[in-house]
């Protein structure tokens, strides 16, 4: 490993306040760093300092000689009159030192990148200026991905990508050589690509090993040790940990945190949602009927967005709606709200249904009011589940507290306006919540607060989103739209959706149909004889004893390190022993996990 970028006691501020205060950090040539933090905390400023796009107020930013750096900023400044050829293959948009690419159709790597980003049929001479913001952003991202660079810096690269595109991008970045720094609010993507997480806030940058799961656990551990963090924030983090530990096994494979510490934190945490109670409350509030669609069709010219869709939605259902851009998700939500009448078929809505719709194009906010006034304009007191909150308390849940409550709406950032819009929708106390890409412009803490509210919200939720983490966290069922006008249930969730994308259209319906879940015991049984099973269980017990011994060994070494903190030579030797013990325990855990998957439960 070699160091390629250093920030030495770097500070940067603007008229609104100090963003970074004497920050020191470095990047090595194979680092993959995810950058997180509240909106306005300084994440984009940090990226600009890393690329030397801006100079620090004090301190120094240094690059290794001949370092090749490319970056995708939040705001694109593409050359006027540029074509796809100019941006992707030319050099007009790239820093000095990058050569033009002369191959197009003959270059499989270029074609693969464009197809992965959802741009397979883009022509060389297509003008970029007339494209949508999402298309322009994907064209710019393609220009960066087809070239070799030492450091790739991406600011919200998953914006305007669907779930399949995000999955492809994660796999591409994992295969790519060189360092990566990415700002993202997509928690699944962060876990998939990052081996280190930088948290930007309060003028500093804190580094954590691992992706979103490890960062969440480290934050909870820090809160527990310092004991100065407010109880409300602690409870949110502990709930998030419970979700992470009880979620899909992939979240906790190759754990980078102490298993016992995580278990201690969640020992008394109940399930994320009490589904039975919520279902009962939802039925009381909504009755038995929410929406019934009978043979509903919607056409846009010759394209069928909905084709004879029959779908029943009941009280308390939590549905994730996934599909590529243009597949018809927004159209379906608009039909449910009544904003769009179908060309044929019938939509029946329950008499007690009070829907709230968060669209991608947000309704105009009252710019002449202040934040608290904008919330109180809708309601002064709100019942959310079993909790009664004042307008100010609800605003605090979404990050508006203190002086920020009296900020004019016109002065809010884009992310803050998005938060306020969602806040106003919830203040109206709907019993059906329809959300179209709700994670746009929301930071991770706000998303966690939203998920916490929805955990106790006794209504029906339908979320159309490319945010895999949000869908898996909030929804109990997943339905998919493939662009053929149909709506299909996916018992296997997003994993099943991604698998069906690899299947030809004629076979997709059969593959997307519900399948019986495998019997794990029956599956494992034939693979082992009785003697092999006894030997495997004996080996599991041995590995468990070894893990306990290694865990105790690590604890002893930590105590010795604290005792001999001033003895450099002793600390170096102890640190080497600790690393060896940690490596052995990690290998033992991997062996245990691999064997445990093959042994049926007793």
TrEMBL record:
PANTHER family: ABC TRANSPORTER ATP-BINDING SUBUNIT, ABC TRANSPORTER DOMAIN-CONTAINING PROTEIN. PROSITE patterns: ABC_TRANSPORTER_1 (PS00211), ABC_TRANSPORTER_2 (PS50893). The lineage of its organism: Bacteria, Bacillati, Actinomycetota, Actinomycetes, Micromonosporales. Keywords: ATP-binding, Coiled coil, Nucleotide-binding. SMART domains: AAA. One of its GO terms (molecular function) is DNA binding. InterPro entries: AAA+_ATPase (IPR003593), ABC_tran_C (IPR032524), ABC_transporter-like_ATP-bd (IPR003439), ABC_transporter-like_CS (IPR017871), ABCF_ATPase (IPR051309), P-loop_NTPase (IPR027417), Val-tRNA_synth_C_sf (IPR037118). This is ABC transporter ATP-binding protein. The keyword Coiled coil applies. Residues 533-591 form a coiled coil. Residues 5-227, 291-509 form the ABC transporter domain. Residues 506-530 are annotated as: Disordered.
């Amino acid at each position: 490993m070699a160091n390629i970028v250093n920030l030495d006691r770097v500070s940067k501020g603007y008229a609104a306040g100090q963003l970074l205060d004497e920050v020191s950090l470095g990047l090595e040539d194979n680092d993959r760093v995810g950058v997180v933090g509240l909106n306005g905390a300084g994440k984009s400023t940090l990226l600009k300092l890393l690329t030397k796009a801006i100079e620090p107020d004090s301190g120094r930013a240094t690059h290794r000689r001949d370092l090749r750096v490319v970056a995708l900023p939040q705001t694109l400044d593409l050359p006027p009159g540029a074509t796809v050829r100019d941006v992707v293959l030319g050099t007009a948009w790239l820093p000095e030192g990058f050569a033009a690419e002369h191959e197009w159709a003959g270059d499989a790597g270029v074609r693969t990148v464009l197809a992965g980003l959802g741009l397979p049929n883009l022509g060389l001479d297509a003008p970029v200026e007339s494209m949508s913001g999402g298309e322009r952003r994907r064209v710019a991202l393609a220009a960066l991905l087809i070239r070799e660079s030492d450091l790739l810096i991406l600011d919200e690269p998953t914006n305007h990508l669907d779930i399949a595109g995000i999955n492809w991008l994660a796999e591409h970045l994992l295969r790519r050589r060189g360092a990566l720094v990415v700002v993202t609010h997509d928690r699944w993507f962060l876990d998939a690509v990052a081996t280190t997480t930088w948290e930007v806030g309060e003028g500093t940058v804190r580094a954590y090993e691992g992706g979103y799961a490890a960062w969440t656990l480290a934050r909870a551990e820090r809160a527990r040790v310092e004991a100065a963090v407010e109880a409300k924030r602690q409870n949110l983090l502990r709930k998030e940990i419970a979700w992470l530990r009880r979620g899909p096994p992939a979240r906790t494979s190759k754990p980078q945190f102490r298993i016992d510490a995580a278990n201690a934190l969640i020992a008394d945490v109940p399930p994320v949602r009490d589904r039975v109670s919520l279902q009962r409350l939802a039925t009381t509030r909504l009755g038995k009927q929410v929406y019934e669609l009978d043979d509903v069709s919607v056409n846009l010219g010759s394209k069928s967005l909905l084709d004879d869709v029959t779908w029943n939605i009941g009280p308390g259902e939590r549905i994730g709606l996934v599909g590529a851009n243009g597949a018809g998700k927004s159209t379906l939500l608009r039909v449910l709200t009544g904003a769009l009448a179908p060309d044929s078929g019938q939509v029946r809505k329950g008499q007690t249904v009070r829907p709230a719709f968060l669209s991608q194009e947000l309704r105009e906010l009252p710019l002449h009011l202040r934040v608290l006034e904008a919330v109180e304009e809708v309601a002064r007191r709100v019942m959310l589940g079993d909790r009664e909150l004042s307008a100010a308390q609800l605003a605090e849940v979404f990050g508006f507290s203190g002086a920020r409550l009296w900020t004019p709406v016109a002065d809010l950032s884009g992310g803050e306006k998005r938060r306020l819009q969602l806040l106003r929708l919830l203040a109206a106390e709907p019993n059906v919540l329809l959300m179209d890409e709700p994670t746009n412009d929301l930071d991770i803490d706000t998303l966690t607060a939203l998920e916490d509210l929805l955990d106790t919200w006794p209504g029906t939720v339908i979320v159309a989103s490319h945010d895999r983490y949000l869908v898996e966290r909030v929804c109990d069922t997943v339905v998919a739209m493939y662009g053929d006008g149909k709506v299909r249930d996916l018992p296997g969730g997003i994993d099943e959706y991604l698998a069906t994308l690899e299947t030809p259209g004629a076979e997709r319906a059969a593959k997307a149909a519900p399948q019986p879940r495998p019997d794990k015991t029956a599956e494992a049984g034939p693979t082992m004889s009785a003697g092999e099973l006894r030997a495997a269980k004996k080996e599991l017990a041995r590995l468990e004893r070894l893990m306990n011994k290694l865990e105790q060994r690590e604890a002893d070494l930590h105590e010795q390190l604290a005792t001999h903190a001033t003895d450099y030579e002793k600390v170096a030797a102890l640190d080497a022993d600790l690393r060896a013990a940690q490596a052995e325990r990690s290998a033992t855990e991997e062996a245990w996990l691999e064997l445990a998957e093959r042994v049926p439960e007793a």
